[in-house]
Amino acid sequence: MRSFQASISLSVMLIFWIFAIPAWSLEIGSVVPSFTVVSPNGELLGREQLLGKLSVIFYDTRLTASSNNDLKYALADLRNAHPLLLEDLQVFQIIDASSANFFTRSIWKRKLRENARKYGITLYADWNGKMRRDFGFHPKLSNVLVVDAQGVVRYVFFGKVPESERNALFTLLLKLRESI
């Protein structure tokens, strides 16, 4: 009996582990799948809003949201230094809110609104985790994605983007801007 319970427990843990880790992720050159996320105020963001502009997407959990803050500030400086980027580069912050439930959803919305006001940006929530799964984002790391004006992935990074990687990323953004 004890052996049967141990094998059931092991099977459940294995299934949880398999579904917790993304099976695949978007690669450079792949087309961004259709998605819809929503701000706490009901503003929708989907694939259609990415088309025609260069987009940087930060996809985080509430625990990883600050991981790449230094990169976000550096992106703001880059945009200010290159006026054409102000017009053609959009930056989105999406939070995995799939752990919210009926009882905590209003708290999540309130916190998202507070943080949006605090940082002067629109925060979007992936309420059901579908975007995370469809994009193959890592569930425990910050995810950074660059999408060109045609909806093609040009950069993917999981975790905190090291300072040594920033110049290559900024060079890529400037080069992609020229092709718009």
Automatic annotation (TrEMBL):
<protein>
    <recommendedName>
        <fullName>Redoxin domain-containing protein</fullName>
    </recommendedName>
</protein>
<dbReference type="Pfam" id="PF09695">
    <property type="entry name" value="YtfJ_HI0045"/>
</dbReference>
<dbReference type="InterPro" id="IPR006513">
    <property type="entry name" value="YtfJ_HI0045"/>
</dbReference>
<dbReference type="InterPro" id="IPR036249">
    <property type="entry name" value="Thioredoxin-like_sf"/>
</dbReference>
